[in-house]
Amino acid sequence: MSLLELRKVWFAHPGGRSVLRNLSLEIEEGSIAAILGPNGSGKTTLLDICLGWKRPARGGVFLTGRRLDGLSRRERGTLMSLVPQRENVRFDFTVTEYVLLGRAPHLRPLEAPGRKDERIAREALAAAGIARLAQRSIATLSGGEYQLMLIARSLAQSPALLLLDEPASQLDPGNQLAVIRLLKSLRSRGITVLYTSHNPQAAAIAADAIHMLKNGSFMVSGSPREVLTSAALEKVYGVPFRVSWEGELPQVQWDEREGIRRRRGRS
Amino acid sequence: MGSLKHAFASLLLLVFLLPDAWAGGKAELPAAPVTAGAYRVTDALGRTITFQKVPERIVLAGRAVVMTVNAVYLFPEAQDRIVGIGSTDQGLGDFYPLLDPRAGQKKRFDNSAGPEQLAAIRPDLVILKSFMKEKLGDALESIGIPVLYADLESPGAFASDIRMLGDLFQDPARAAFVNRYYEARVDAIRKRTAGAPRPAALVLQHSERDGAAAFSVPPVGWIQTLMVEAAGGEPVWKTAGIGAGWNKVSFEQVAAWQPQVVLLISYQKPSPQVVEGLRGSGNWRARLAPFPADFYSWDQPDTRWILGLEWVAKTLHPELFADMDLKKEVSSFYRELYGLDQAVIDAEILPRLEGALAAK
Amino acid sequence: MRRSDPRIPLLSLLLLLTAAASLLLGRYPAPGLISIGGLLRDPLAGRLVLMLRLPRILAGILLGASLAAAGTVFQMIFANPLVEPGFLGVSQGAAFGAALCIVAFSASPAVVQAVALVFALAGLALSWLLARAFRFGGWILRLVLAGIAVSALFAAGIGALKLAADPVRQLPEITFWLLGGLWSVTWRSLLFLLPPVGAGLAVVALLRWKLNVLSLDDRVAHSLGTAPERERLLLLLAATMATAAVVSVSGLVGWIGLMVPHAARRLVGTDARRALPAGMLMGALSILVCDDIARTVLPAEIPLGILTSLVGAVVFIVLMGTAGKRRGA
Questions:
Q1: Distance to chain A for C76, nearest Cα, Å
Q2: Residue A34: left if φ>0, alpha if ψ -120 to 50, beta else—which one?
Q3: Quick one: residue A129, left, alpha or beta (phi over 0 = left, psi -120 to 50 = alpha)?
Q4: Which residues of A touch C209 (CB under 8 A)?
Q5: Are A135 and C329 inside 8 Å of each other by CB?
Q6: Please, which residues have CB within 8 angstroms of residue C223's CB and are 6 or more apart in sequence?
Q7: ipTM of the complex
Q8: Residue span of the structural domain in which A128 resides
Q9: Structure confidence by residue, pLDDT tens digits, C280-311
Q10: Which domains does chain B have, with CATH numbers?
Q11: Which of A100, B8, B243, C161 is most buried as measured by Cβ atoms within 10 A of its Cβ?
């Protein structure tokens, strides 16, 4: 049964330009799905619509089979969590305090977190591998640590579905790997993952299903092997790619030399 | 932690708040049995206070206390009963030490002194102007210090407040004497000016700030307006006196009113000086007359208002009041009302009036 | 909280002791402290402590707690360390109401308080309405701009009223009110304060953990299942209600609402679960100390606002100078 479903969703910014056109998507429970597309293709808007933060002009969003706008806010918050690309750090909370904020949808309106919530927050920190940062001020974290902390906060929310907005795009390779490993481990915790990326390699390693977004709808969807072909990638990004497989591990590279060669050839 | 603080605050409030909240925040003055010797006084606000005996530690406080002080000193027996006096110097010196040999023993304090400061003097009565009720009077009463309010702002209120003081000092005869003194003169002036033409008169205050001169007129409800009318004049500034305090007016406005007599007040520079300066500038067609000032300018609702009235009458109708000798009026005022010797009057008071009275 | 943090209980104790000492402090029978024995022997002293000092001290505690709590709420919701509780037209509205009352009706403290409160809430309502009408920027920016505009309008009105006021009787009243002070507090005014302040502070205290959540971006708050607009509005209203009530009694007392939240965060951390109660206690302490100075040091009252500005400015300089050590590992 699909955990999240978008049916024929249209969305336009005020001002007219259609960002998403007749877009449909099904996310299977327990899967890791990636949405690939170049900058400006509407990936973030798509996540906003999945989250219920923006409403589609046409079409519907369904979570666990029910209409998204039929769910109460708290219910939605216990089912689905967003890890944003970045956040404004305005106050220097400690990492633990910040992760604890993820418990909000599980608490009654006047309730404050108790021991159980604090335990869950600690576990989330451990799962994200940053237990050692528990008492640090969030203003002192590096980019990678910060991203892991945001994921930990979402883990503390104990959602069924985790949405991530370009989770590794700002990180160095070492941190990218850490994030990708973490995402893969979430499957064993029963968490479904949907993330966006403009980096095909990141999608290639982690995802079960990839959806390539171009001009507001999915050009192609399927398993990595089906989707990640040089032809498809070149169609989406407009530059040549080289794809090779070593067993289950893909290597997707933007072929710079070929790109330069072609341009020289043309000029 | 927040709940702990709330619990503490609630506890504190419960302990202290309940018994007094419904008392309306004022300690009840002891219910006064009418024993022998006890008497009641009704003050300017219509309140009635019961006294078991004449108070012996009276404090005169609050803003505009000088009017209260001068009124209370009309009663010779009051002197020794006063233990505290606020600030009475309006720039020309304190008057009451002339009357009271023990003036130096009285506690002085600022006019903005608070209830605790006054309580430290341990008064058994505080007399305040009526507008001080919420600022000071209520607080004093809430700690059990009796308060009497005096108005003193108009001749009518003045007479009533003198009667109140007469009741307070158990000397109604003196109060009657004082009131008769004022009434007789007011009546005499009214009778004499009854049929006479009323010259257009303007009361103008001159003040200087940073070298720039400004003129203002008093509000219609103040005693200056009443003085001019009672003295048989026509106050021309009635249309402009709308504000609650001195209203600024331009020189054109003054000229437009075409006053025949301008009664000039100056609280800072001596008014004769100001008059000289203005006459020199040549713009003035009206007759300029400076308001006299001994310790206080005579235009205020102080006990001297009767002198002010007499002077205005003489200034507006010099022919009608040719026989009025202001120096004699001043002497009789200070002699009869304040019990000063003529020698003291000649030495201390008349010299201060030199300038204004010379321009009779 | 795993380790029990002694700082907040210590602050509570300090507040209790300071309040007790303040009861003994004043200008009767002489400037300074009165001994307990002296207090018990002298019935006038007893009445003075009960009827004059005690309500004033309690009002001071409520004033400090309200300003600090409101300052914390505003700073977290607007995510701006430089906002203070009255800036949404509440302070200037109350000041305008007080000035209007003094000039046009009466200077009786009870009436002035009522009118000031009405105009304080009107200031908030105006800011809100104006923010809805603006078409520039996000919700928060619009509210801030509207608050600035409404405050400026009221300030102009105050200037006009000062010109129209009688310089002998009314202008000193207005000036004194604008500078702030607790000299007019009676048990009655305390009763007037209790409902709005109690309700406002209770709401804020109960929702203090939520305040952390509300300081996040809107989208993240949405993801966490909260309705940020509604809950922010509720907290703002509660904080403003308490602020408007205390400002209408005490006049404009500045800097406490701005500085104490910073100092509290510096002491116990940013988490509002601790920063809010700590702030309330520190605010109450600050006002108590300033008010003690205001009514004891000179025979005449020193306006409270002057002292809080002085203390606030010094604290500001110290805080900025000792750039708080970030809590390291």
A1: 8
A2: beta
A3: left
A4: 112-113
A5: yes
A6: A51, A53, A77, A80, A81, A82, A84, A163
A7: 0.89
A8: 2-266
A9: 999 999 999 999 999 999 888 889 999 999 98
A10: 23-185 (3.40.50.1980), 197-358 (3.40.50.1980)
A11: A100
